[in-house]
Amino acid sequence: MKKLDVTTRDYKSGFRAKVIRRPLFAQKFMGIIVDFGGSDPQKLCGGAHFLEHKLFTKKDGDISQRFEELGASTNAFTTYNETIFYASFTEHWRQVLPLIFELVGTTHFTKSNVAKESKIIAQELAMYQDDPNWQVNYELMQMMFPKTSLAEDLTGTKSSLKKMTPEILQEIYDNNYVSCRMEFVACGGFSENQTKEILREVGKLESKYLISKKVAPKKLSIVNSQKEHNKIIASDLITSRVGIGIKLPDFKKVGLRNSTAQSIFEMMLQAKLGVTSPWFEKMQKKGILNSPMELQVSYTTAGNFATIIGASSKPDLFLKNIKSQLLEVPVTEESFVFQKKEALAQTIREFDDLSTIAIEEAEYGLENDSFNSASQAIQSLSFNEFYTAVENILNKSDIFTTTLKGKEEAN
């Protein structure tokens, strides 16, 4: 298995920088990841996502235009765990580098631009809420993680968006955009001398732009679920949407790193329920499952979970079969070997995608992990280790279901 060539430097403030050298690549990538996402505690839910949008607004306009003048494209996204701002380009890295820090390290919040953004995000939220899969996922998260940020959409709620002010946004920024919770990553055909230069400049820029103060490390919080575990809702859908939520344990308590546990559980779901599984073919032949399902495994500070969402004209049979497959049918060694090969093949493919590899390395860094060690953990994983890990996780998990009943089933 190939390994990334990564040079890391830690600064006194707690800020960390990584340069991934990929010789012969003309494309380059630079970004800053912030250890603050949608699931983290915040004064108003959706604050992390709102910040992601508004940090592009500066006193002299949208900073994206200054990236474009250098031939660079810039973007950002927010997940449950983090927010990342980045740029892709081929030339002018010395000019792009300070722009990345200016993007993340300066704010310009006004009543008018915050109010305008609230309306834009409200439209984005309304669009999501029209999606049946979003509705199913929302109900599952409400049952598994009530009264937490996970129970709401990453974009927030209509109420939280209306309440957002420049002062609240600045408070959220000041409490979370601190140097010890941020990491810089660069990836591309940088020479050894250029790598040293980048790390020197990063040291100057993080001192100039970022807030340096000590904050408590993030910890997994224990949230009591709702007593209700199964919810049925009538809908106007022709075909029912069915969702299964699995509230997973603290992975460290079953002796696993977050990244390893996530990969193992994803492999298990694909082996048991994926499009290449005998179970999936059987469900289609019986008319119980209409199409491939959405399978997701996540770890967050508010809790760990997996969701499975699919369309079925026989929702009760679907739930009965999927629970049986999950809890009673073990993964065969042959299926494990196939899924392990698939996971490693995906890792190899990612080597040629600079953006993906850089973002993943940055995400692993927030967990004091790395792309290389995470890949090695899967490469060295034995069937017995896999089997034991899956059993330990499932034994400490709890299952919830939501069904949006189609017209025929509702009548």
From TrEMBL:
InterPro entries: Metalloenz_LuxS/M16, MPP/UQCRC_Complex, Pept_M16_N, Peptidase_M16_C
Pfam families tied to this protein: Peptidase_M16 (PF00675), Peptidase_M16_C (PF05193)
Coiled-coil ranges from the UniProt annotation: none
GO-annotated molecular function: metal ion binding
Annotated Peptidase M16 N-terminal domain residues: 31-157
Gene3D superfamilies found in the cross-reference section: Metalloenzyme, LuxS/M16 peptidase-like
Location of the Peptidase M16 C-terminal domain: 163-328
Protein name, as recorded: Peptidase
